[in-house]
């Protein structure tokens, strides 16, 4: 039986924490000038409601020109850089991802970071287990400049500066201290920096991994229901590492 709250939590965490991922002013990295050399495929879906459950979606493969990190980047190129269910683990299904702007969990009265500093292009994907007891979301935002990406991180960092965060629906979650996971996520390329947070709430636990690399801000969120079997799934850090590697390849 699908647990809708798990997917909702993943959506809320990704959308509200995307640009609130603990970056400092010196977190920006010029390494995004790495030359893209391969083409890749991906899939994304949108719906009117991020809480709506969906059945597995047939994979549609497309081929797009790799992104030019120094120039304009299209919506299609960002979508092609996102993970597909098959790239995460066998048996996963595509969920429904919705692009929304939400205030930081630690201050529901604050203006969403994406409203203050809108990204030039952004896209995301939701991937779930068949029973819905585990959900992963990836979101990529491309800013006009490295300075804007870093500024979005700085402004949004206050959104994680609390022990207990409150979502728009009134539910709460506990946010752990930030952990530098750059060595794991970015180690192979030496590009960018990554930080993770453990997040727990009633009936679920999760991990948010955020990466800042040049003009790119990436958020990967993994949420699982208490008691769910995740033995066949990669760890949140492994998922984030795979996601960042694919983004670089594009």
UniProtKB/TrEMBL annotation:
Key words, A-Z: Signal
Signal peptide annotation: 1-19
Domain of life: Bacteria
Coiled coil: none
Extent of Acidic residues compositional bias: 23-37
Comp. bias regions, Low complexity: 38-66
Region (Disordered): 22-71
Protein name: DUF5642 domain-containing protein
């Amino acid at each position: 039986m699908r647990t809708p709250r798990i997917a909702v939590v993943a959506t809320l965490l990704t959308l509200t924490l995307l640009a609130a991922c603990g970056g400092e002013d010196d977190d920006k990295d010029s390494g995004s000038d790495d030359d893209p050399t391969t083409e890749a495929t991906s899939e994304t879906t949108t719906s009117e409601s991020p809480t709506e459950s969906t059945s597995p979606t047939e994979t549609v493969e497309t081929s797009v020109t790799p992104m030019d990190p120094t120039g304009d980047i299209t919506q299609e190129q960002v979508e092609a850089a996102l993970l597909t269910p098959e790239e995460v683990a066998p048996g996963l299904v595509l969920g429904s991802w919705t692009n929304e702007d939400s205030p930081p969990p630690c201050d529901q009265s604050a203006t969403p970071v994406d409203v203050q500093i809108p990204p030039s292009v952004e896209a995301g994907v939701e991937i779930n287990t068949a029973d819905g007891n585990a959900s992963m979301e990836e979101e990529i935002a491309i800013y006009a400049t490295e300075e804007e990406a870093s500024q979005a991180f700085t402004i949004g960092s206050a959104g994680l500066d609390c022990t207990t965060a409150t979502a728009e629906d009134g539910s709460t979650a506990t946010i752990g201290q930030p952990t530098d996971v750059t060595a794991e996520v970015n180690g192979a390329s030496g590009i960018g920096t990554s930080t993770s947070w453990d997040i727990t709430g009633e009936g679920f636990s999760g991990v948010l991994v955020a990466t800042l690399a040049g003009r790119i801000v990436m958020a990967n969120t993994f949420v699982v229901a208490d008691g769910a079997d995740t033995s066949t799934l990669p760890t949140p850090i492994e998922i984030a590492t795979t996601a960042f590697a694919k983004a670089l390849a594009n």
